[in-house]
Design goal:
Elements lengths: L2 E4 L3 H13 L7 E4 L3 H10 L4 E2 L3 H5 L4 E4 L6 H8 L8 E4 L6 H7 L3 E6 L10 E6 L5 H11 L4 E4 L5 H30 L3 H19 L6 H8 L5 H12 L3 H25 L7
Parallel strand pairs: 1-2, 1-4, 2-3, 4-5, 5-6, 7-8
Antiparallel strand pairs: 6-7
Helix pairs in contact: 7-8
Length: 279
């Protein structure tokens, strides 16, 4: 299998590294392009054998799967660059949530899929959300998921739930890292504990809690019930959290969805022209 990557920014380089480190792909199986060629050159130094493409079309040519790890506003230009050299049996995989599968299929003559990776894939953990276009059959889906399974748990979702599931899977690590940061900083300020010690304890706690929720088979409610003795310290603190966090995640979800709707309008306007959206 030969795999192309167009875009080697934060997530593109993470996926390349994860696939190579996990043994899913050899560097020689990967061809990559980027607007800033120096970024690809750095990856080639890190992973000897990785092939540097001089153009996006070169990255897509003679590959079985092409990952598009680019920003929404770049799609029209990139798809224009590569579609003349694509073959019907190839698979285009977008990691950009506001770009719809139907839009990809309008622009390319090949198969199309959309995945939402997570920074947790860097350590072979977490989920990769998978959505498939109308041209993909069961064998195509199995091939992509077999590749993704080296670095994550592939989970099929309906495209209409892209944003909310992305909030949970892809944005979630940043949200909960922020909460841990606030927890640790408060511990340091209030007690004087060394930040490194507080962070080590809190990180181990978060890892253990995740395992309780997955392999431990416990629900969030059950964990709280087991930890919070009635009238005890944890129960008192949870009462405070209920007041302070009331509606917090509702506001967060409304914020991400508003930005998502804004981005989908911009993508559609870029690909088809503003008149399609009545703008």
């Amino acid at each position: 299998m030969n795999v192309g990557f167009i875009g080697t920014g934060s997530m593109g380089s993470l996926l390349i590294g994860a696939f190579i480190t996990s043994g899913a792909l050899k560097p020689s199986q990967i061809t990559a392009s980027n607007r800033t060629i120096a970024k690809v050159e750095c990856l080639a130094e890190l992973y000897p054998g990785l092939r540097i493409a001089a153009s996006n079309a070169d990255a897509a040519k003679d590959t079985d799967i092409i990952f598009l790890c680019i920003k929404p506003h770049e799609f029209r230009s990139v798809l224009s660059d590569i579609r003349v050299s694509l073959r019907s049996e190839q698979l285009i995989v977008s990691i950009t949530s506001p770009v719809m599968l139907s839009q990809l299929e309008d622009w390319v003559p090949c198969k199309a899929a959309k995945i939402i990776p997570s920074i947790t894939n860097h350590v072979g953990s977490g989920a990769t959300l998978c959505m498939y276009g109308s041209r993909m059959n069961n064998e195509d889906q199995h091939q992509l998921e077999s590749l993704l399974r080296h670095i994550s748990e592939p989970i099929r979702i309906e495209e209409q739930y892209t944003r909310i599931v992305s909030d949970l899977s892809s944005c979630g690590p940043a949200f909960f890292a922020y909460l841990i940061q606030q927890f640790v900083d408060a511990a340091v300020i209030e007690t004087g504990i060394r930040r490194s010690d507080a962070l080590a304890v809190a990180s181990a706690m978060l890892l253990g809690t995740g395992r309780l929720l997955t392999e431990g088979g416990m629900t969030p409610e059950q964990i709280q019930e087991r930890v919070a003795v009635p009238g005890g310290i944890t129960a008192k603190a949870l009462q405070s959290l209920e007041i302070d966090c009331d509606g917090m995640f509702n506001r967060l979800i409304r914020t991400t969805h508003a930005k998502y709707r804004e981005d989908t309008v911009k993508v559609s306007a870029s690909l088809y022209g503003e008149e399609v959206n009545g703008q």
